[in-house]
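Progress note, project year one: complex with zinc ion.
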Amino acid sequence: MNIGKLDAKPKCPQCGETLDGFACVTDPDFVPDVGCLTVCSYCFTPLEFVEGMKLRRLNIAELPEDAQHDIRSALRIARAVEHMKRSEN
Ligand SMILES: [Zn+2]
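Model obtained:
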């Protein structure tokens, strides 16, 4: 797993929170760049890095079907983990 901080401090276009960190479980050398997909860790909106490392809201229907399935699965897991964290507190 690769975890790091972004030099850019993009804001989520959905909730306005600053997203300055990243994590990748599949590539230890991964660093986000334009065209990479991510999910807001505050509101779970799917996002894409665009020019200037800004973020735009991603319409899942824009993606190939297998990627749509993967993103929806990742979102379900992220929301379930968040729900578990909140119920423990
Ligand atoms: Zn957000």
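The pocket of zinc ion is lined by residues 12, 14-15, 17, 40, 42-43, 45 (CB under 6 Å).
Residues 65-88 form the longest helix (24 residues).
No further modelling is planned for this target in the current period.
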